[in-house]
Design a protein that fits this description.
single chain; mainly alpha; 2 domains; 58% helix
Length: 154
């Protein structure tokens, strides 16, 4: 690739994407990019600003104290083990109630049906609390009344 085929816009995009270090530039465009920079003062100015940015980024680089392998090893050794039957360690209030309702069996067939039934009962209960009028505008006023009576400027 030569400098006639590398446009200024493409050279600028390459510098912005890969930084000022020529080692990071794509190998097949490295020579043409360097020629384009040598011929264009705007690209030289952009390269200078990118070198300053690279210096700042290199100076503020954080070195992690743990490696990925150490994190994975720690995670694998501390995975949640199922608690023995009869203990409620790490079990939320809702799950403890469902366990009690399903006679302590966390893997029972009835658990999913019970959850769906409770959700249905709550939905029906909430739905029957709305006024049953033919005119929906009254129902909408009932539903949105707390919003209208909210904050006031004063």
């Amino acid at each position: 690739m030569n400098d006639e085929t590398l446009t200024t816009d493409r050279a600028e995009a390459l510098i912005l994407a890969f930084g000022a270090d020529p080692v990071r530039w794509p190998e097949e465009e490295r020579e043409a990019l360097q020629q384009c920079i040598d011929a264009n003062p705007q690209l030289r100015e952009l390269l200078t600003s990118e070198q300053a940015l690279d210096t700042v980024l290199a100076a503020s680089r954080v070195q992690p104290t743990l490696s990925v392998a150490q994190v994975l090893a720690h995670t694998a050794s501390h995975t949640a083990q199922p608690s023995p039957k009869g203990t409620e360690e790490g079990v939320g209030l809702v799950e403890a109630f469902l366990d009690w309702l399903c006679f302590g069996g966390r893997q029972t067939v009835w658990r999913s049906g019970l959850v769906a039934g409770v959700a249905l009962a709550v939905g029906v209960g909430c739905g029957t609390q709305l006024p049953q009028e033919e005119d929906w505008s009254i129902s909408e006023q009932y539903v949105f009344a707390p919003i209208e009576g909210g904050e006031r400027d004063g």
